[in-house]
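thought: fold this chain, then report.
action: predict
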Amino acid sequence: MARLTSLSLLTSGKNNVFFTEVVLRRSLRFVICPPKRYNLNNATLKCEKLRNTREPRVSKLVRMRAFIALLGFLFTIPVSAQLSNDPGAGPHARAQAAADLIREAAKTPLAFLPAGLLKQPDPGGDLAFLILYPTNEIVVVRLSGAEIREALERSLASYPASSNAFLQISGATVIFSPSATRERVIEVKIGDSLLEPSRQYEVAMPESLARGALGYFKIWDKSKIVRNVGKTLDEVLKGKTDIARSPRYIAR
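observation:
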């Protein structure tokens, strides 16, 4: 959701809301009419009030500063990457749900499920039907924060084009720049905490991925495996039809 409270940065003093309305009218030359009432610095910004506000004389300096700040605000709002029907081209509702179940089975803070192990198109129904190799065992790999970030860079390297290396994730939120040609990952959170490059994390994933499949051998290999969960993908996903509609990748 757009953070309307950030508009308070546009001006200073007790007339923040008033000057913001002026900027919206005079600098952008259109009127924003929010469909609902929003609280902005303990004041209510309503469509009718915005339409009826008379424009006072405002110094060019105030207008210029407010206009620049508003542009910066508008162009830095994080937007969730759209859910994709192709698990290799972006967050996929059923694949994310499968990753959630893998993480829960392994009791780890993070899980990876690569697009290369998922059927396309999605056959629907039981989540186990989504998996190409359902007898693949679930294992836990210990990775540093830096290695996790590198893996996410590989995952996003071809975005928005489809790639078998794209990772459906559970337990993390990734803010990235789709326009960047290199180092697309801006920020990673594991749960509510920022990813720490030197910290070690346990990550659940299919055994084939843990052994470096789909090019991930450049980041880890089987020596990073610390334990076997003792269950296959089929055993964990069979009979489940969960859907996770909130994307874990956020474009900025």
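thought: worth noting. Helices lie at 16-26, 47-52, 60-74, 93-106, 145-156, 207-210, 233-237.
final: tokens above.
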